[in-house]
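ugh ok so i messed up the first submission bc i forgot one of the chains. this is the corrected input, ALL of the components this time, i swear. 964 residues overall. if the numbers dont match what u have on ur side tell me asap before i send this to the collaborators (the ones from the other lab, u know who)
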Amino acid sequence: MAEAPLPVKPESRWRQTAQSDLFYAFKQSPVAMVSAAVVLGLVLAAVFAPLIAPTNPFDPATLNLMNGFTPPMEPNAFTAQTFMLGTDDQGRDVFSTILYGMRTSLFVGVAAVLFAMVLGVTLGLIAGYTGGWLETTIMRTADVQLTFPSILVAMLIFGVAKGVTPLEYRDQMAIWVLILAIGLSDWVQFARVVRGATLVEKNKEYVQAARLIGRNPGAIMWRHILPNVMSPVLVIATISLALAIIAEATLSFLGVGAPPTQPSLGTLIRIGQGFLFSGEWWILLFPAVTLLVLALSVNLLGDWLREALNPRLR
Amino acid sequence: MLAFIIRRVGQSLFVLLIVGLVAFSMFRFVGDPIDNMLGQERTAEDIDRLRTQLGLDQPFVVQYYKFLEGAVQGNFGISYRQGRPVIDILLERAPATLELAAVSGFFAIVFGVALGVVTAIRRKGVLTNTIMSVSLVGVSLPTFLVGVLLIYLFSVELGWLPSFGRGDTVSLGAWTSGFFTESGLKALILPSITLGLYQMTLIMRLVRSEMLEVLRQDYIRFARARGLRDRAVNFQHALKNTLVPVVTVIGLQLGSIIAFAIITETVFQWPGAGLLFINAIQFVDIPVMAAYLMMISVMFVGINLLVDILYFFIDPRLRIERSGGH
Amino acid sequence: MDDSVLSIRGLSVEIPTRHGIVRPVDGVSYDISAGEILGVVGESGAGKSMAGNAVIGLLTPPAHIAKGEIWLNGRRIDQSKGDAMRRLRGKEIGMVFQDPLTSLNPLLTIGDQLTGTILTHLPLSGAEARNRAVAALEEVGIPGAAERIDSYPHEFSGGMRQRVVIALALCCEPSLVIADEPTTALDVSVQAQIIALLKRLCRDRGTAVMLITHDMGVIAEATDRVAVMYAGRLVELGIVQDVLTAPEHPYTHGLMASTPLASLGKNRLHQIPGAMPRLDAVPEGCAFHPRCPYATDKCRKSPVPVVTDGRVACWHPLVHEKVV
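and heres the new structure output, hopefully the right one now
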């Protein structure tokens, strides 16, 4: 009589990831590894900004206007303080503003993508599962929205939201409005993918079985279908994050994003551009280079990820 | 084929109506138009009079209809910020944006297609690798960053090119053009590179990938097997087949140039419709926002429609299939 | 040599891969004379198409000719590269591909594709080229050639398109035509027509034909001589009636016995046990020995002498009784 096979301890998630094809491809690509390292470094710098930054540039109590316009690495004429990357017009240490600025940029980017993902996935599930006029409405709205570039949609949403916010709250609410705007401009691709995948899953046996048992649609969508449609969603989410960060920087630069009281890298660049011709080049250049490095690394990583996950190229 | 056109036009009109609804809602519900137009010292009579004058006491649908009616005639009301008719302001600023868009688009298409073809024909090699790396940078960087860095390099450090404005312009009737003066042309250079760079890299990558795909096809192999020269294979056979699917995407891309002009115009303080729109958002000048939205929509929807119909004429296979086939 | 149109001597094509060197063509030799149709038959992956690609110079890198010689009309061509080789293609060597649905450029009229080819090789005017194109279409049996010359490929059926392909291959009067599975993608009813067309055209012009196929019916119908390939090697070469009715190589014998007709009256289709080896795992000695019912030690150890002027590459060729 054959023995029952011994239970095999499932490998830990870390093990599985380390042995997966994706990780192997990652190790093979110097570009992917370098850009991932850079992104990670910048993210950590942003997260730990309060610990790393020599000053908190947005605490008015610590500012000294006399420090303004100090060039990098040179002692200030009045206070003899030296700042690694110089100071801006308000006397803020540029290095600190960059760190805090990145914080804002990353926060908005991540929050916006999460919002878009939750909204898009929910609508996609409903559209795919329920069908009928609800599906048509959702998908038609998606189509109409897609005719326009998402940045335009975000700008418009920001403008309208600003219009309905009372004046005194506008600066405070700006960040949340920005997240709303970018999120709302981005939900469509999530919805489309999830709807497509839901349509496929809907006809599978496990869904039919759940229906027969009498589970309610919400439960079916949430517990049964959702886990199976998540993998393309995660791919889109990573790429969306890169786009969201850039969108946020653009909107802030244009003045319809993060305000100067809570600036992101985009806002800093906008401020810096104003001082280009008066000779204080550092106020522009350092935030600009930081954004350049961040954008480039995130895009390289996203590009690599897309190619690595593309089944056609295997 | 007529049925197809009618259906597409119908869809386009539907989209425009929806956008119109959104624009109108903005108009009606964001802020109080009365507040925005009358100053501090206003009497109850003033408010009532204005209310009736603006038709604000009418039902929603009537107001919507009136709005659409006005829109079709080009009447979008008065700008809150400037106190002038919106349509006048828009028409004044349009030539600047259109000239910028035209030059950028031209630059993007010509270089995009050329570089795409070159990198597809020479798959490997130093030139191709360099171009591909630069293109990756072009696609990753936000437009405004490119503009700002170009200004830093060419205006501040080198002092070769102007960093803002259109330079001197010449009036030709209702149109103002920057093409005819030296400073006008110089002023066009940095902005058009900034605006066109992203589109150019997109087009280049698209053309390259399409062409590589086409070059893999059997009929290309057969053409080579018949001894056709490389030039003939690449340009008479492969290029045509590459451009057909690409032309639609290019068309759609060009539409977005006008929207992205907003960013470039802000960087360079280019006095076009895009800068007008941004200022309108900052000042919550609803009539201008609504009008810009409508005009942009008409443009986008129109381009989509045109491209769809154009595709019909380019691909002979579609013609036969749609009309019944042999 | 002598007066053959095509002469392949000891041709080997190699492809370096991660697992080592793969030889889709291994020491193959055969000749084709003017007006003769040589069938090259074998299973998929046996290397028959590769030999054709090598002759016309369309091997995709990293595949390359490693050994051997290719002679065309008394000139050696395996070393020719670039423009010299290009001039031969279409003019001296024509090729017919398998799938008529993908062989023609969908965005060019067949007239353009024909005149383009003609003008590349022949010093004619535009009008003359067009006349020649119409004539070519008529010869392959396209009705209403003068009107249809300006049609697009998708306006023709599969069989018609293959006729157009043949017209394209022959329009510059090559001395050799390589037909790579010309009927495999066609309906059975159309296959016979196309084969007959090919036969007729080539007999009339004295063109040498390399007809590559895996279909024994086509071999029986159309060819004068046949070359049987297995695992990249040539195992039998001879006059088609001889090879089909009295095959000397056990593999050929197995092939003949496997055709449905041969199994009429029996309960099961005859099969050769096992499968042809992958080209990166070819057995030592005779490539066929693992599946051969007559294999001996000699077969397992010693590589078989290559077929040159002889008939068969086997240590123990089958002997058939002569039927009087």
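quick check: Chains A and C do not touch (no CB pair under 8 Å). that seems consistent at least. The CA atoms of residues 113 and 131 of chain A lie 26 Å apart.
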